[in-house]
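Task card 7
Instruction: Convert sequence to structure tokens.
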Amino acid sequence: MSPGFIFATGIENSAPTIDHGRKRVDEMEKCGHYKYWRTDFDLVQELGLKVLRYGPPLHRTWLGPNRYDWDFADLSFYDLRERNIAAIVDLCHFGLPDWLGNFQNPDFPELFARYARAFAERYPWNQLYTPVNEMSICALFSTLYGWWNEQERTDRAFVTAMKHIVKANILAMHAILKVRPDALFVQSESSEYYHAENPRAIGPAEVRNARRFLSLDLNYGRRVDSEMYEYMLDNGMTRDEYHFFLNNNLKHHCIMGNDYYQTNEHYVRADGSTRAAGEIFGYAVITHQYYNRYRLPVMHTETNLCEGPNGDEAVKWLRKEWANVLRVRNNGVPLVGFTWYSLTDQVDWDSALREDKGRVNALGLFDLNRKIRPVGIAYRELVQDWLQVLPTQSVCLQVPMAMPSDYDLICNVRPTMPRDEGRTLAPSNTEGN
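Output:
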């Protein structure tokens, strides 16, 4: 049975490379998930949640074309199935396996679609997917900011990464639908806005506000703004490539995920440089901009705030974001879910994972000792208070979502983990409390 409104959290499987590919930032490893994965799933249930944004570590699972190591995925996804926790499966989160290189590789989209299909065939009870997480941020940080993966700083590298990333997402959706025809896809994407600092900055701000929609325009087959069209063609996209996006969208299978943090709004200077603006418009205003453009059901797929010196900063942010969610719903937008991201504190998030300093950021519902934070208590109470109160007749709650137990009943099967010959499990994969 569908949980109705989707309250969720996430366990991040980010794994970009830095230092020109010589070092991988594996957030699951840094946060102890490989060791405490059972405990982490216990914590999800402790919060009263039935949905988890979660995926296998791509660089450890995808060993080559048609070569996979499913050991850890078998343990974790069969455990989630037994608990009847629905995963929003996060297949690619900011990094590729070493053998693929980076997002400039033109072979990535087709190969990734085969990986996505192999995953769906092995774990067919999963209905919800985010094939590629935050496509725009992945391309931006890798190719214009020079922080991850390619560590480029050119428009041509950005357009190349963008077209490969979005094509991979689209092909993966098509591949998954061949296995699970009722699959739903949550495009978790950063919802940004650029404010002109002065009149001379209006032009640069308009360019950035057009560029923020580029990944979703391509993914949903929406014709891009004329300036973005010229920009893409000037930087290597062909007309045939552009028409692929117009002709292959699966918008009717999609939920638009909007991620919003205090860092999502920016001031733009006359020279095009930017600085943090903090919260000006807020989630509700910016989400309306995205909804008016795409007219899709919406899910608030990421937010958090660091617990500061007063100990209540994250709790206040949670309440503010929830008020924004209710405002969006009350204004008639079909908003289907909310997510505090992530379950535990993160490591090196303060540098956007571009530094390997081991700094723990107090962003989670639980700390890295798996002790609940005040925001975890507040989120648990919020879920308890609102889960049964939200009006069930609302269009916002009519997403045809199935839980793992629904699949088991329909197929008359019980979850049984595959017994692969030659299976070897690393000790870090088998521990759990």
